[in-house]
């Protein structure tokens, strides 16, 4: 079996090289899944557990901590399939095979802030593959041995957070989480550059860790048959949303990452698991407060706040002129609909296209510095960064410095945005703004029409927001700020 598996993996990589001319490997989930499919479609029976175990070994993720939880207790024949050369054919391709998966899985950040070992997903977010695959392996291993997954949360995220919190504690570093980054080209991604100094827990590592925990927990449940690895990844990352957006989507899709992880891992459990990982570090008593603060920061940034597609990811142009800074915390959230585009956007590519079109219209036709809105909400489960929390927008005449302009993509005169999109603003964005001290605790929600003569945000959406607890049932009588 070992010889056949080695030959299979080498053959899969050979075929992949032929498909990807000149061995060009795009760093996205689609191409990674294609490589997995080459293995699965070879005609030989190789289990998903064998594949993820082989990938981990190929990328060198076999340290003592990992082995504590993922050490094989049964047949060990598939754990070293890339180190044994049983034929000259395998020997000729093993170097290229290792190089491919090393690039795909081995995570590190270069001096120029390029993060390696990450891939772009169709929803516009970026994941590190190592924690994803370790979570899947932990789930499959537990299922095969008939017990709950061991070390699932430690392998996927607690270790990453623990190391980052410890480093920040020892060096008095402010950056203990993040940052996110942007790709050189979202249709042909090759280089992912971080937007600031890296912590040991970048957004990609955190996204991959959450996904690994979610999918690992799912796979450990033996109530359903184990899917092919490629099918699992495809259904999770490549599901196509319908008109109802996430309201009628399956639970296990990447756009629901934050909601699913919150349900799976309460903050108290995450804090406990991080402390267990750091138990042999001294003085532990002084670390406890650092871990507690770090977990609270994690919960705010990655669970309470909505996932945000940054400007560089949707292809924003540079603002014209010098941006004016806001002076938070502000009093208002002004709700808009875009009207044009009139239809909701249901995926990253379409929402990004809409963002670029709105920015172009606002800059070229209206003569504004930038896209007018502070934030824009798609029906794909994500918010898109406009002018953000820090810069004065051009969304609500005479009120721009008093609050944030939040626009739903679509025309909502006679219909409503998806329930998930409404919740992102009503519960997630508002809570994020208050906790981060961008919004006042007693903030007020207004429809655009309450501040100026317009039908925006449409009759249906205006009627909906009028039921929100922070809605202010008044109309502006004076022009107070630009």
Can you describe this structure?
The protein is an alpha/beta fold. The chain has 16 helices and 12 strands. The protein is globular, with a radius of gyration of 24 Å. Mean pLDDT is about 90; it is low at about 1-20 and about 80-95.
Protein traits:
482 residues; alpha/beta; six-stranded mixed sheet; two-stranded antiparallel ribbon; 10% strand; globular; disordered N terminus
Question: Brief description of this entry?
Answer:
The protein is 45% helix and 10% strand. With 482 residues, it is an alpha/beta fold. A hairpin with an 8-residue loop joins strand 5 and strand 6.
Reconstruct the topology from this structure.
Elements: H1 2-19, H2 29-40, H3 48-58, H4 64-70, H5 88-105, E1 108-109, E2 115-116, E3 118-120, E4 126-128, H6 129-145, H7 152-171, E5 181-183, E6 192-194, H8 203-220, H9 229-237, H10 257-264, H11 267-277, H12 284-304, E7 308-309, H13 311-314, E8 330-337, H14 348-365, E9 375-377, E10 383-385, E11 403-408, H15 419-435, E12 439-447, H16 459-465
Parallel strand pairs: 7-10, 8-11, 8-12, 9-11
Antiparallel strand pairs: 1-2, 3-4, 5-6, 9-10
Uncertain parts: 1-22, 81-94
Q: Count of helical segments?
A: 16
Q: What is the ordering of alpha helices and beta strands? A: HHHHHEEEEHHEEHHHHHEHEHEEEHEH
* Proportion in helices: 40-55%
Average of the residue pLDDT scores: 89
The helix-and-strand class reads alpha/beta
Determine the strand fraction and express it as a percent band.
5-15%
What integer value in Å does the Rg equal?
Answer: 24 Å
Tell the overall outline: globular
Query: What is the straight-line distance between the termini?
Result: 72 Å
Number of strands: 12
List the strand order in the largest sheet. Answer: 7-10-9-11-8-12
Let me know the largest β-sheet.
Answer: 6 strands, mixed
């Amino acid at each position: 079996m070992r010889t056949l598996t080695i030959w299979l993996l080498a053959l899969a990589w050979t075929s992949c090289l032929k498909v990807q001319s000149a061995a060009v490997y795009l760093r996205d989930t689609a191409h990674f899944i294609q490589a997995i499919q080459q293995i699965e479609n070879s005609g030989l029976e190789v289990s998903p557990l064998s594949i993820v175990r082989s990938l981990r070994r190929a990328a060198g993720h076999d340290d003592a901590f990992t082995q504590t939880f993922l050490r094989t207790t049964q047949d060990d024949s598939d754990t070293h399939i890339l180190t044994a050369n049983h034929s000259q054919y395998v020997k000729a391709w093993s170097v290229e095979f290792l190089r491919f998966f090393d690039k795909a899985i081995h995570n590190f950040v270069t001096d120029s802030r390029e993060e390696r070992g990450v891939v772009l997903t169709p929803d516009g977010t970026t994941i590190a593959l190592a924690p994803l695959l370790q979570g899947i392996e932990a789930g499959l291993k537990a299922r095969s041995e008939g017990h709950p997954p061991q070390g699932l949360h430690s392998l996927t995220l607690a270790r990453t957070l623990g190391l980052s919190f410890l480093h920040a504690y020892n060096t008095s570093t402010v950056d203990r989480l993040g940052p996110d980054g942007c790709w050189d080209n979202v249709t042909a991604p090759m280089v992912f550059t971080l937007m600031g100094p890296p912590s040991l827990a970048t957004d990609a590592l955190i996204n991959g860790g959450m996904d690994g925990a979610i999918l690992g927990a799912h796979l450990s449940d033996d109530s359903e048959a184990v899917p092919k690895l490629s099918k699992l990844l495809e259904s999770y990352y490549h599901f196509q949303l319908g008109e109802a957006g996430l309201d009628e989507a399956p639970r296990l899709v990447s756009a629901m990452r934050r909601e699913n992880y919150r349900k799976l891992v309460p903050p108290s459990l995450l804090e406990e698991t991080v402390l267990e990982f750091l138990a042999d570090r001294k003085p532990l008593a002084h670390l406890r407060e650092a871990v507690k603060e770090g977990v609270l920061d994690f919960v705010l940034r990655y669970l309470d706040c909505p996932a945000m597609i940054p400007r560089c990811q949707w292809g924003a142009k540079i603002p014209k002129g010098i941006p004016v800074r806001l002076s938070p915390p502000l009093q208002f959230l002004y709700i808009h609909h875009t009207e044009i585009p009139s239809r909701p956007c249901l995926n990253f590519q379409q929402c990004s296209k809409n963002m670029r079109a709105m920015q172009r219209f606002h800059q070229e036709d209206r003569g504004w510095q930038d896209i007018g809105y502070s934030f824009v909400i798609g029906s794909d489960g994500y918010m898109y960064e406009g002018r953000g929390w820090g810069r004065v927008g051009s969304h609500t005449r005479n009120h721009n410095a008093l609050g944030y302009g939040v626009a739903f993509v679509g025309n909502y005169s006679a219909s409503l945005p998806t329930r998930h999109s409404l919740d992102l603003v009503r519960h997630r964005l508002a809570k994020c703004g208050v906790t981060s001290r961008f919004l006042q605790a007693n903030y007020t929600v207004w429809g655009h029409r309450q501040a100026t003569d317009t039908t925006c945000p449409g009759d249906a959406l205006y009627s909906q927001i009028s039921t929100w607890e922070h809605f202010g049932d008044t109309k502006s009588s004076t022009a107070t700020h630009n």
